[in-house]
Amino acid sequence: MSERKVLSKYYPPDFDPSRLTRTRGPKPTGPKVQTVRLMAPFSMKCTSCGEYIYKGRKFNARKETTDEKYYSIAIYRFYIRCTRCSGEITFKTDPGGMDYTCERGAKRNFEVWRTKKEGDGDGDGGPETEEERLDRLEAEEELERNAMVELETKTVDAKREMAIADALDEIRTRNARNERVGKDGGEGALVGVRDEGDAERERVEREDEEVARRAFISETGEKVRRIGEVEEGDGLGVGSGSGVVSVEEEAKELMPPPTFKRTVKKKKDFSAALGIKKKPGLV
User: Which of 6, 33, 105, 143 is most buried, judging by how many CB atoms fall within 10 Å of its CB?
Assistant: First the structure.
């Protein structure tokens, strides 16, 4: 079996490359046609033999660019052959309806525009025109706009109701407070407020006295005396002819005099902790 992809080709002995001439023919006129591979865009029935061609069947078709345009979108025409009778079937693109239009050689089994018309109830079997499409789009846009306006209105109404409810609650609370004050009497309310103020003032004074008392007590619990203060029962203080004795002098008298004698500490014996036992001396 020979290879399909060869690197060298056979040239006969009498081959003369100078005899090869380049010929240029006239450029093709008319619509541009090219062969493409496509699938049937819709299910159809051949009008010649009645063969059914389902959607998605593959064909080697001829693609032709027509002179028609939808706005700036080009419209293409395709030619295929029936799988049974080889009859030619033609259909072209429809950018406006985002679909394909069957021209000749076959008939569509299902028409999308017909279902839309039956749903609308118009009764005519023609496709949707440009004006009808624009009217339908405007109606849909109007419905969306109305839905948004309705939603905004509902939101504003809900906020207003919440504000009204909060105001009513505040008014009810104020009225209940006024009624309670009216039942107790204005003088009773004023007296209660005055008593609360006096109690608060007394509490603050007691706290200040406690803080001052703690500030003049030493760590041992004894009261720190000021200069010139006389205590009952002790001989210190101001006598008949003596001067004033301060707290510093009392502390100096009570404290022992400092000694600068060096004391030698006895070293500890760690032999017992280490498990060392000394033998007693012989002497």
Answer: 105
Nearest to 39 by CA among 55, 58, 54, 53: 58
**The overall pTM is greater than 0.90:** no
Query: How many other C-beta atoms lie within 10 A of the C-beta of residue 257?
Result: 5
Q: Please compute, for residue 141, the number of CA atoms within 13 A of its CA located in the half-sphere on the CB side.
A: 6
Q: Is 274 exposed, middle or buried (0-12, 13-18, 19+ CB in 10 A)?
A: exposed
What residue type is 161 in one-letter code?
A: E
- Using a pLDDT cut of 90, give the percent of the chain over it: 28
Q: Is the pLDDT of residue 278 over 90?
A: no
pLDDT digit string, tens, across residues 127-144: 667 788 888 888 888 888
Q: Which strands, in side-by-side order, build the sheet including 99-104?
A: 33-39, 58-70, 73-81, 88-94, 99-104
* Cα–Cα distance for residue pair 86/106, rounded to 1 Å: 12
